[in-house]
Amino acid sequence: METLKKIVSNQYFPAAAVLTAVLLFWAVGLLGGLSLLHNNQPPLTTLTWMLFVYAAAVLTPLAGILAAADLLRRWRRNRDAETAYAGYLEDQDSIVQQVVPGHAGEEPAVQHAAPPAPAASQPKKTAKQAGRKQAA
């Protein structure tokens, strides 16, 4: 059950499910899925089935292309994120391993940023100018 939860909550699951359904639809169609047309059915049933198959034949390629593009986009994004994270870890290792210039055994001097310059002085507001209306 835990494996099923992992599969369903996977980010690739929706697009993979759509792509699987599209491929299954076309596989069934190629293997004789239109056999309903060979049977003696009422015209309304045949027409409904034909409209369904026509809509599916038009929409499933679009859905399949969008699902494949989504899978590819997610795979590339995850691959790029892993590469960036590996580069980040390498940068952190190189920063830690850098030798600090200076005398041996001395702590390096820490430079602090200068405090921000004070803003232009503005006149202070009195209680009456605070912006609130006072009760009369």
UniProtKB/TrEMBL annotation:
Extent of Basic residues compositional bias: 125-136
Compositionally skewed regions (Low complexity) per UniProt: 108-124
Keyword terms, alphabetized: Membrane, Transmembrane, Transmembrane helix
Membrane-spanning residues: 12-37, 49-69
Region (Disordered): 105-136
Top-level taxon of origin: Bacteria
Protein name: Uncharacterized protein
Species per Swiss-Prot/TrEMBL record: Pseudarthrobacter polychromogenes
